[in-house]
Design a protein that fits this description.
Elements: E1 2-3, H1 12-24, H2 36-48, E2 55-59, H3 66-75, E3 85-89, H4 94-101, E4 109-115, H5 121-136, H6 141-144, E5 145-149, H7 155-163, E6 166-169, H8 183-191, H9 196-211, H10 219-232, E7 237-242, H11 250-262, E8 264-265, E9 271-272, E10 275-278, H12 289-294, E11 299-306, H13 332-349, E12 354-359, H14 364-384, H15 396-407
Parallel strand pairs: 2-3, 2-4, 4-5, 5-6, 7-10, 7-11, 11-12
Antiparallel strand pairs: 1-12, 8-9
Helix pairs in contact: 1-14, 2-8, 3-8, 3-11, 9-14, 10-14, 11-14
The structure holds 5-phosphoarabinonic acid.
Length: 408
């Protein structure tokens, strides 16, 4: 990964203070990636059920779904690989439930219910629905259901005991939106044939950078400092624009991470927060770029691209091509990267802050790096913004009202 951020440069003292403040919060997202016994358990379980399932269905919401969706969309093997299909139901919209249900053969389906609290109503409703379907077909829950939840607390934990359901833990010190590299994401990923080793190696490499005392080697700190400085100058929106189709849902994962972690009341009682915006190059040049090029200067822009876009895919010649033929013989990958350069230059020419993360390829290793880069940056941002990046008190009121409306 090439990282081109030099301004503003954080100092070594600042780095030490921020790391100490982060350590005081006792969060585990950067250490969980070395939990080898957990990785071995996941691999052993996946081997023990190999060949039994055509469909893996994740039931979860928010941090219990978005990272898994990103893993699937970025790394899932091709349908020809013979691996099970991974479905993710992260909403209670009946259309989605019916649409996924219609594709399933329950006898060949494994449901992974994921909820750290083990009580989230949306996930509990989905769990009840599909477990009732399994029971109606006399399919044993102990063979068709797995829970990923808190190691001790919550309804799922109790139910697992009474029903003999296999469980995997979500460590108490890893919050939902930081949990993709716990069993939350790693279990479904392994079950569809994603190799954990390079993913975790990338994450560990970035975790080292996150702990690095020298800011020049600490990429999460550099990113956080850059975002914080621009936010202080009124640029409080962060546009994430991969020129990599497979990273489209990374933008959704990032949106939750940034929004739920930074939208807070700070130590001085001020409402603060960074607004995530998700875009995809080149597609959104034709939908959002106008706003970015001439709209308010209240955003920063993060581009991802890769130099190696895979096997050649040239645009064929065409007689009577409609325009002067700039396209003939051009490879699609080259076209994509040229469009990225053009957009980047368009924005930098008018002084809009841009960051370009350039990779050779996007493999599991780079995705592991990206997860830890943004998680680490958000952890530092929390300290810089004087907020707790790891709670979400603002969503409580809506939960209370939902309960009230359902009991009325
Ligand atoms: O980041 C978070 O903590 C939230 O988005 C949760 O992941 C989400 O609310 C789901 O919670 P749970 O896993 O307890 O069902």
């Amino acid at each position: 990964m090439h990282f081109h951020l030099t301004q503003p440069a954080p100092t070594t003292a600042q780095s030490a203070t921020l790391l100490a403040q982060f350590d005081a919060r006792a969060q585990g997202f950067a250490t969980i990636i070395t939990d080898t016994p957990l990785h071995d358990d996941i691999t052993a379980y996946a081997q023990s059920v190999a060949g039994q399932f055509d469909h893996i269905v994740v039931l979860g919401i928010g941090g219990s779904a978005l990272g898994t969706q990103t893993l699937r969309d970025t790394l899932a093997p091709t349908p020809q690989s013979g691996q099970p299909t991974l479905h993710i139901i992260d909403n209670v919209d009946p259309d989605l439930i019916r649409q996924v249900s219609a594709q399933l053969d329950l006898a060949r389906t494994l449901f992974i219910t994921i909820s750290k609290s083990g009580t989230t109503p949306e996930t509990m409703a989905l769990m009840r629905y599909f477990e009732a379907q399994l029971t109606a077909q006399s399919l044993p829950l102990s063979q068709h259901v797995v829970y990923v939840t808190d190691p001790e607390k919550g309804f799922l934990r109790q139910r697992a005991l009474t029903e003999g359901i296999r469980t995997f833990p979500i460590p108490p010190n890893v919050g939902g939106r930081f949990s993709v590299l716990t069993a939350v994401g790693l279990l479904p990923a392994t079950l569809i044939g994603i190799d954990l080793a390079p993913l975790l190696a990338g994450a560990r490499a970035m975790a080292e950078s996150f702990r690095h005392p020298d800011p020049e080697h600490n990429f999460p700190l550099q990113l956080a400092t850059w975002l914080h400085a621009h936010a202080a100058a009124g640029r409080t929106s962060v546009v994430l624009m991969p020129y990599v189709q497979r990273l489209r849902t990374f933008g959704e994962w990032h949106a939750q991470l940034l929004a739920e972690s930074t939208g807070k009341v700070n130590a001085s009682g001020q409402a603060v927060g960074l607004t995530p915006l998700s875009a995809l190059g080149a597609t959104d040049q034709h939908s959002q770029l106008q706003l970015y090029a001439q709209g308010p200067d209240d955003k920063v822009y993060v581009f991802f691209s890769r130099t190696d876009t895979g096997p050649a895919l040239p645009i064929p010649p065409m007689a009577q091509a409609p325009q002067s033929d700039i396209l003939q013989g051009v490879d699609f990958g080259h076209l994509l990267n040229v469009e990225m350069r053009a957009t980047l230059q368009t924005l930098s020419e008018i002084g809009r802050p841009t960051l370009h993360l350039e990779f050779e390829q996007i493999t599991a290793f780079e995705l592991g790096q990206l997860f830890l880069l943004f998680e680490g940056a958000v952890a530092f941002l929390g300290e810089l913004m004087e907020i707790n990046a790891f709670d979400q008190p603002g969503v409580e009121r809506s939960k209370v009202l939902t309960r009230q409306f359902l009991s009325a």
